Amino acid sequence: MRDKNERPTEEFQNVYDMKGKKVASDAGRKRYAPVQNSNYKTGDTKRKAHSVNQKKRRRILRGALFIFFMIAVLVSAVFGLSQVFCKVDTVTIKYTNKAQDSKRYYTDKNIILGTGIENGDNLLFVSSADVSEKLEKNMPYISSAVVKKDFPSTVIIEVTECSKVYAFKAKTGYCLADEKGKFIELADSKKAGKYTVVTCSDVVSTLTGEPLQLGKQDQATEEYPDTQKILDYLELLKKSGMNITSVDIRDLADISMVYDGRIRVHVGEMSDEENGVTAWRKLQLAKNALAKQDEVSKTQTGKLELAISKKAYFTADKENPEEEKTTVKE
User: Fold this and answer.
1) Which residues of 202-227 are buried (b: 16+ CB within 10 A; e: fewer)?
2) Phi and psi for 54 in degrees, rounded to 5?
3) CA of 294: how far to CAs of 68, 146, 196, in Å?
4) Which phi and psi (to 5°) does residue 136 adopt?
5) Which helix (H) or strand (E) is 136 found in, with range?
6) Cα 325–328–330 angle (5° rounding)?
7) What whole-number distance in Å separates Cα of residue 309 and Cα of residue 321?
8) Is the dihedral of CA 162, 164, 165, 167 positive or negative?
């Protein structure tokens, strides 16, 4: 049967070479010559290529098996050694902040029990992330817990306890909270006076250790969408370094606060974005103006007006007119 890649040669009576001499021909017999093209391969060439490919695959397979075997041996060796030399025998608690009122919310023993780590556990298989999450979730007075491993047998836990920063005025008293708005405990007005007192339109608390819900409730979703805005603004106040004793933030468009218990500061809106004044720049303007007034007197009382863009106006109280009125520009 003819191969489709072959074509018949024609019968030639006279055949000449390059020098023009007549040479013998195979006239009278038909031949079939293979079509020569760039993709043509003879059977022998194909067999050789297949043999080479098989050898390559065998070498790759042998190499992969060898690597897998070495990894298995190494892992087994490490696991075996860890079972002998990396057993937990010490859990150390370190605090990154001072105790509140010379007390700790939890004892070291409470925290160690809360980790779930037991003596004899394999240190390699202690998950730092899982232990940290467990402590922060189940022990609400812990703000953060960083878990570190000190080989061969020690776990170190760096604990940051919640710090009472704000006293949010609620219907049942004052909710003491940390800078993230986590509810720590309920207090009376006398104790709340030690912290920055914050008045919101509403303060909803559930359980200690849970975040407070602040501001006005959205009746459709029953959520408090202004909570994060309020906390962000309070964070800026804390970052500014001003001695703010109280903040009235019942209306986000009409904020006021008291500096050092004696100067009323009318902020108005948090920011004036249309004129390029952010909340931070507004607070810096207030800080500079208050610093200038403190240079005049550390006891004077009055009012600082910030509602006018890029300017701060101070008016002293009449009973203490050490400086009637000053203006500070940004």
Assistant:
1) ebbbeebbebbbbbeeeeeeeebebb
2) -60, -40
3) 74, 42, 20
4) -70, -30
5) helix 128-138
6) 160
7) 26
8) positive
**Cα–Cα distance, 81 to 124 (Å, whole number):** 11
Sign of CA pseudo-dihedral 130, 133, 138, 141: positive
Give the Cα separation of 311 and 138 in Å (integer).
48
Q: What is the largest CA-CA distance in the chain?
A: 136
Q: Tell me the two tokens of residue 120.
A: 């004899």
Amino acid at 136: E
| Crossing angle of helices 128-138 and 108-115, rounded to 10° | 120
In terms of Cα–Cα distance, which of 267, 242, 272 is closest to 257? Answer: 267
Residue 299: Cβ within 10 Å count: 9
- Top-confidence range, 51-60, 82-91, 106-115, 120-129: 106-115
Q: How far apart are CA 106 and CA 93, in angstroms?
A: 11
Q: Mind listing the pLDDT tens digit for each residue in 261-296? A: 999 999 999 988 888 889 999 999 999 999 999 998
Structure tokens at 57: 């695959």
Q: Are 225 and 215 in contact (CB under 8 A)?
A: yes
Checking phi first, is residue 53 left (phi over 0); if not, alpha (psi -120 to 50) or beta?
Answer: alpha
Q: Which CA distances in Å does 33 have to 17, 37, 39, 205, 263?
A: 19, 12, 16, 95, 108
Closest C-alpha to 136, from 178, 84, 194 = 178
For residues 35 and 105, which has the higher predicted lDDT (pLDDT)? 105
